[in-house]
Amino acid sequence: xxxxxxxxxxxxxxxxxxxxxxxxxxxxxxRRLALVGPNGAGKSTLIKAVxxxxxxxxxTATVLGRSPARARGLAGYVPQLDTLDAGFPxxxxxxxxxxxxxxxxxxxxxxxADRRIAREALDRVGxxxxxxxxxxxxxxxxxxxxxxxxALAAEPRLLLLDEPFNGVDAVSQDAIITVxxxxxxxxxxxVLSTHDLTVARDLADQVCLLNGRMWAVGxxxxxxxxxxxxxxxxxxxxxxxx
Length: 242
Fold this sequence. Notes:
It is built from ten helices and nine strands. By secondary structure, it is an alpha/beta fold. β6, α7 and β7 form a beta-alpha-beta unit. It is globular, with a radius of gyration of 18 Å. The two termini are 34 Å apart.
């Protein structure tokens, strides 16, 4: 099985201007990678590069054995919660069904099988009883779980999450962590960005420290220590003492 991610000497950015450099990553299938660094470090840019939405300006980058753009249909994406319009008049189930559109086509009606998969995804995140509830009426943590269910409905081989725990209650955080661990056990690779070093240490198999470049990557016990964190964060405060 092809590795989930392979970056070698890569630089990524926008319009020819690099945002991140010195990227050397090798993430096997079924493993969980946490991207850690201060605000503006390039965590979201790396996620977008994996999705083919930011440019690879040098070096090489493959996702599931393909170019990032060609692998996009095999990946699921959970964006930051505050980037979405909670007032859009759709139910939780309708949001989750959007995860099926790439498989069935945007203008084709959903089938019974698609609705079953969407309901199973909602059940997996503990929100089966909220299927008919308007998305904007859910709590922040529940909305984040609905977005995770949408990504699960796409049946991805790689799942990318951008700050999934920001503004999320403890119940929702525990539910999300449980699903991410289950995905890894089933062979789905996971990449998430987070400011919470405790989450990174407890959830990830590998941690990548970013701040304009990749400073270090490896097991949490080696990377989330004083030396690597000082080098990566520079003058920024480290959010949680390891």
